[in-house]
Write the structure tokens for this entry.
Amino acid sequence: MRHSTTSADFESLLETLASQASRWRTTSDWPADSLLRCGQHGIFGGLSGISPTWTDQPIWTAVDQIETLIGLARADLLTTFVITQHVGAIKRIAASDRLAAGGNAASVLQESVLPTLIDGTTIASVGISHLTTSRLHLGRPAVVATAAEQSGESGYRLSGTIPWVTGAPAVGYVVVGATCEDATQILVLIHPSDEGVQRGRGAEMVAMSASCTDAIELHDVFVPEGRVLSGPRQNVLTPAKPNGSAPTGAGGLQTSALALGLSYAALEYLREESSRRGNLIPIVDRFNDEHQRLHQTIRAAAGGDSGQDSAAIRTLANGLVQRTTNAAMTTAKGAGMMIDHPVGRWCQQALFFLVWSCPQPVADAHLCELAGLD
């Protein structure tokens, strides 16, 4: 049966995630339990848009996926962010050239790798931002690939730094992008335990530290041909996504959905407080109207409405989550500043949307709003 955001099992999952969300604070608090639970509930297969030949659940529509992300982020943004990176890896593997071509490499991916990623027994991540945005200003590739052989097996040797990898010290696979000598690109699958891989322990950040996001250093790492997913070719990240996938990417709906989910959590706190403080009722009503409008806009965009602009939606989502979490802090007063109060966590997490995959036009719009410029 297709997942529904109103189903009892999904609501039970959300309650469990919300009850554990406060546990994920430091780089020592990787949310393994919550991730495994999501895998057991079929979340990863649904969000990946994977063919039913690989899983026993029907393909979710893009709207199903967006609604699921909103619900998950409302319960636990940290775990949901990790899920987006895990699902991103699954999608890249499922859309790989080698899987489409068949053969031994495809069999390994389809029979050994993808099933463990879909059920959550193994978590993966992506290290591809350096092919699109991160460190491009340096004028040289962050990760270089050179054709090579080892023990009679052809492949590539990778050297360089992957600047941002969620779950760097904790995941079992990383989908990595690299640039060849002729400026073509490849996508490969590495094990963090491969010889020459040096993983960061996770950066301590203002928020989201438990995502264990950090750099991974590659020192002449050999990747056999069987773990080359796509390429070499120009713009290796451009293949079409699997059917039914929600739009992703910098400024995409996925990020806006997570911002809206977090904002809903803060709104629910305001709503609960309004039952005891009448002055909050008009504030809650105004916020509620704004949330519903944005929610419907995101649904329309996910459903294929070409009249919706993802950057404009992201700007609205960024602004809303900042204002709602700040309103919750103002309402909580001193209690919200305590380390164990959820409002403080939500305010810190809201800052994440100002930097995570935030396109320059969205950042500029926020700066103009802060400065009172039209």
About this structure: Residues 1-6, 240-244, 246-251 have pLDDT under 50 and may be disordered. The beta strands are 124-127, 143-150, 153-165, 173-180, 185-190, 197-199, 214-224, 228-233.
